[in-house]
## 1
Amino acid sequence: MADERATAAKRNGKARGGRAGLLLRLLLLAILVWFGGFIAFVLTQPGAAPPVATDAVVVLTGGPGRIARGVDVLRAGLARRLLVSGVNRSVRPDELVGAAEIPPDLFACCVDLGFKAETTRSNAEEVADWVVENGFRSVRLVTAGYHIPRAEAELRARLPADVALLSDGVGAGLPLVAMLLEYAKFEVAWLRLRVRPA
């Protein structure tokens, strides 16, 4: 009887140890997959898009070189109109024109400022509304290379399916911790959009 109890206890212990070992292996696999994804995220950041014409160009504020890239696209005749999304409400248009060195005649004819957006998600909403309102069929998205995956995911979820999107990444180095944070934000946005599309 005592032997039977000891054997049963051994079997139960092995079963618990087997389950714990399996859970540990699954956790390690998940961590490896996540870090593999992060390495791919860092190594495959989109750069400058080729000189392809689109109906419009949109710039998401928040880093150096973005507005200048959008203005260069306009000047080169690669887009008819520019939206700068996420402009701080305290910024006056003439301040932006001066700071970004936008020629006043170009600003007057072809540049719109969006003051509603405060997050990448609200950038996507502001841009999608503007694209639909103007009837654009193609749009160039300008933001930092590391920001493109999340911005593109949010925007694709809101744009009409027949609107072509061209991503144009501006180089911007980030410390490793900030890059990890951006990757985590991208993962959360990607999962949220799979569960509940915009």
Note: The chain has a mean pLDDT of 86.
## 2
Amino acid sequence: MGLFTFLKVLIHHPREIGAILPSSKYLAEAMAHSVASHEAGLIVELGAGTGVITKALLNLISPNQILAIESDPLLAKQLQKDLPDIEILQGNATHLNELLEEKSSLVHTIVSSLPLRSLPKKDREQILLEISKVLKRGGQYIQFTYDIRSKTNYYPPEYKKVRSFIIWKNIPPAKIDVFHIQK
């Protein structure tokens, strides 16, 4: 998927994209390597965008274990064309449980590129609630952000941070937080 498509969507929906450039291969590989791939279950990617992280996941995980969700119709259509072996759902993560339907009980890991810190508080809280509905005890939630400061108020108390690190080679640098669900 080209930079042109990314920039077109960025111009029309800047708060939903939350980045000035697509994720780098360094960030994508670090996100993919953070997944506990030995665990059985579905890996759901939120905000699949241009598919950089999806492709990194594909290098480590079977395509039938990955489900990508993208809210922008143009990006979702392009993802389906570029990655025909992956199930792509076009929809908003504020309705995650509904989007996944019967597959919600199969989810073990959620990998998120959503710009939680730039979304309205109501949307952010709803997305985190939806993640909590879908992930079962011991489930894994991986989120990256360009705000490398720690801000615990962006995560519910039942999420236990088990790892946090910065990818300095990404432009701009990005922080990856890995959580396990404690509920």
Note: Residues 121-134 form the longest helix (14 residues).
## 3
Amino acid sequence: MAGYQYSPGGLLSSLQIKRKVFVSFHHAGDQIYRNAFAAAYSETYEIFTDRSVAEAYDSEDHQYLRWKIRQNDIRGSSCTIVLCGAQTPLRKHVDWEIKATLDFKHGLLAIILPTCVKDAQGTWLVPDRLADTVNNGFGKWMLWSQLSPQILKIGIEEAIVSPIEKILNTRAMRKRNG
């Protein structure tokens, strides 16, 4: 934690707070990672309160689903964690959840899963909106292989205090899965 000093309301004092977190991920591809993540860091270590969608909303209306997740799940959180696997960049719901997070100016933390793919230049393939804003200085990148309770807690806090002027949220929303 080099570079941080204690100050009331600063990073060190905020490490004592149990944050409300929304976890965004590709349900069909990365459910096993999401389950392990929630079991370890929300239930066992109690790092955060999980605000993710517990059960799928019963609707085929995509506008309604987007509104429901935005209002019921993301609105009450302080940070969204995006679990980035092989198919995550192609998922419209993940893009919508990232957009809502940025609209609310909540923290954004990207966790690169072991299944995440790199392109020919060695760059992780993640949702474009996520890459735009985290690479611009809002939010944070982490590797699944380097997670620990303390590292995750610090990552969440750093994501939450990211400078909001660094948010890039100008892309059109993804209309369908790729």
Note: The domain at 18-166 is CATH 3.40.50.11200 (Rossmann fold).
